[in-house]
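pinned: reference chain
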Amino acid sequence: MGKTTRLLAVLALLAVAVSARNDDERWSERERGRGEERWSERERRGREEARGGTGWREGDDWFLLHRSKPVVETEAGSMKLVQGSGKIPMHIGFITMEPKSLFIPQYLDSSLILFVRRGEARVGNIYKDELVERRLKVGDIYRIAAGSAFYLINAEEGQRLHIVCSIDTSDSLTPYKFQSFYVAGGKNPKSVLSGFDHLTLSTAFNVTEEELEDMLMSQREGPIIYLSNTTHAPRAWSKLSEMERAAEMRRVGGDEQQSTWSFRKMMVSFMDWSNKKNDDRKGSRTGKGPDAYNLYDKKPDFKNDYGWSVAVDEKNYPPLRHNDIGVYLVNLTAGSMMAPHINPMATEYGVVLEGSGTIQIVYPNGSLAMNAKVNEGDVFWVPRFFPFCQIASRTGPFEFFGFTTSAHNNWPQFLVGANSLLHALRGPEFAAGFGMTEDRLDYIIDAQRESTILPTATVAPPGGVREAVRKLWSV
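pinned: its structure tokens
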């Protein structure tokens, strides 16, 4: 008995020792992990201090938003999303619709600002309990509020519709994400009506459950559907008879059964009413609500021999006041540049519409953050306060458009040119800050006679740059 007791005691001591060793190893592993985390944190802080404590990532990919993910993809069209960077509640969407197609009625938990890049569209949305319909052309912007049901139609024959839109997720259910709620639908996508108990819903509609099921199960083509057969040249929808339109919608629905309450019949009735209203109003607008605003029709806010720029805020287009978002459009001639400047109140998103060029962005510590070439379709962003400029390639015009996250008092501050803030700061103190005499600094500041949009050496007037350099070094 005594030997057995001693043996058990020894085994217990060994078990305690092994457990303690394992605990020590686990503790050491945790400490090594914590040490590595502390070292990584010190490295990160060191890199940030080298860039002026910004906390921004290095590399061109941080300011160029290359990645896009499909949100909708059908035979009739698609929608892709380029997610915004950081904690900024804005994304950029790209909608493409084939001729004679419909983006079915839905509403979002986020607001949209549509910009028609190519083609023509018809957009309808609910505004103060009334259906408002507008025809949109190239250059039009149009706002759709969060929670407002809407649809999009590409009614043109033989022409794709391309729309760029901002998606403001300030009111979304999930931070920095947006959600579609389809009012119309069937098997794909499902209508929000499908979630209700069918007995409850059929009672609310005052129809049978069978009729309700036909309405909610017929559509299976996805969120973007064809309104006509695109395998041959279709006739204009408004010219089709009621019987022809009904036959076409039966083809879209893909169901041989007929029901007064089916989705396709509901859409035929809606389209018939909509086209009659358009015929009465020459197809331009129906309903009392905000109109679209065309960027190309607006007189340029600035224009010279090297390009022009347009900026739109709530003063020009009142619906923008709801989101405090600005819209801009810039066209640079070959080789010219938008002078280095900063946005004191807004982060800027840009989309290249035509041509190619270079975007340069500078960190607060004065080092170059990005010097990247961009082409048509590329998306870039510039954080608030960061100095930047856009330069057109020598091969042709460079046109880009975009959104600013704040239109309130966001007057760009130019760092170079005849209208730069350097002119306002000039004096002995400013010259001392550069370690130069006033006269020599004045020559540098005054050498550029153009403002806002500047010529580069390849397009500058003869002797302009050389003469300025000669004067500078002769002081």
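why pinned: The first strand starts at residue 69 and ends at 74. The first helix runs from residue 2 to 50.
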